[in-house]
Amino acid sequence: EGVFTYDPGFMATSSCQSAITYIDGAKGVLLHRGYPIDQLAKHSNYVELCYLLLNGERPSKEEYQTFERTIRNHTMVHEQLANFYKGFRRDAHPMSILCGVVGGLAAFYHDHLDITREEDRQISAIRLIAKMPTLAAMCYKYNIGQPFNYPRNDMSYAENFLYMMFSNPCEEYQINPVFAKAMDRIFMLHADHEQNASTSTVRLAGSTGANPFACISAGIAALWGPAHGGANEAVLNMLDEIGDDSEENIQRFIDKAKDKDDPFRLMGFGHRVYRNFDPRAKVMKETCDEVLGQLGLADDPQLRIAKRLEEIALEDEYFVKRKLYPNVDFYSGIILKAIGIPTNMFTVIFAMSRTIGWISHWHEMISGDYKIGRPRQLYIGHPQRDYPTE
Ligand code: CMC
């Protein structure tokens, strides 16, 4: 038996080698395959980013067209899946439905599950990227009791998602281009973030040889917690709870967040890796200002509260000393709400967007040499003792 390092929370452990995403937490830098996130957000789009993350290089024009067309060809889901949804309670949290349904995809798409074959891995990746918006929108439609919409392959990735969410057979839904652009931006900003809890979960599950749909379902489960992807939902709930933007009221919540006897934390603040501004939060805040400005909602009360909360926290010694800054989730919820997306769908949208990151990491791992992930422990239980025989 060797000597094992005790590293709870993996504060100092690199679990793998990866060429996908680079983060410099001290400087607030995030690169995907070498490209800075702010440049990607400005000049690229989600589908191109998917190609880049999965394949390592930006696509040529022809490669992009083929990739996009292939995704469009896979947006429909097996008709039988509609019955799977119907087994859930209507008021089930959409994340619980998504966990189950994505895990269940292996039961529908088992024709290409030989993970040792590159072609099969690519097909599963394409299926996931293409079907996640359909599955996510179905969670919402099921919740509100409306019929499911089939995807529209004449629309862009983001437009199609908005269409499936908000269209119904009784009235035409006009896609607002501002919303579609903002949606695409939100997808991009959540696409990958190296070895976070959910990605590590996907890799760990994948290291056993489990199929990619099961692995992504494990990632969705890990993402759901409020310390991870559930934070975007928690931010909006927090802004609701804060309620008004008076100075004393906001200060009261800042004081609660600082109080070690109070479990309340400032949601959307702090990050394990960033000890500086989260570069995604900067782009998200700009997008938030753009979208709400274009909608004439620049003076939205929740946006006012969020901005004042940020200002006060960034000047407060507690947050300064601990290097706590707003993270990607601080402003995303305000944009999603302005688009009309209900709070309980926020983490589902994070999961949809992160699917490309998860599957790229899974693909990178399975394509190279890897071992089953098997951490050790420091045993602190009872030493050996005899079972009493009388
Ligand atoms: N509000 C108040 N205090 C905080 C916060 C916060 N949001 N975040 C960290 N702290 C304090 C914490 O109490 C601790 O103080 P002390 O040193 O006195 O004990 C110190 O800062 C370090 O915190 P930690 O919990 O040890 O740091 P961590 O790296 O383990 O946790 C985190 C990172 C993101 C879980 C945490 O900052 C947090 O809970 N934030 C709120 C939830 C959130 O916004 N999560 C989304 C993360 S970004 C999206 C994603 O990638 O999932």
From TrEMBL:
Residue ranges of coiled coil: none
Pfam families reported for this sequence: Citrate_synt
PROSITE patterns hit by this protein: CITRATE_SYNTHASE
GO molecular function: citrate synthase activity
GO biological process: tricarboxylic acid cycle
Keyword presence, Acyltransferase: yes
Superkingdom of the source species: Bacteria
Database matches in InterPro entries: Citrate_synth-like_lrg_a-sub, Citrate_synth-like_sm_a-sub, Citrate_synthase, Citrate_synthase_AS, Citrate_synthase_bac-typ, Citrate_synthase_sf, Citrate_synthase_typ-I
Pathway linked to the protein: Carbohydrate metabolism; tricarboxylic acid cycle; isocitrate from oxaloacetate: step 1/2
Keywords: Acyltransferase, Transferase, Tricarboxylic acid cycle
Active site residues according to the UniProt entry: 271, 329
Protein family according to the UniProt entry: Belongs to the citrate synthase family.
Protein name: Citrate synthase
Gene Ontology CC, one term: cytoplasm
Reactions that this protein is recorded to catalyse: oxaloacetate + acetyl-CoA + H2O = citrate + CoA + H(+)
Phylogenetic classification of the source organism: Bacteria, Pseudomonadati, Pseudomonadota, Gammaproteobacteria, Oceanospirillales
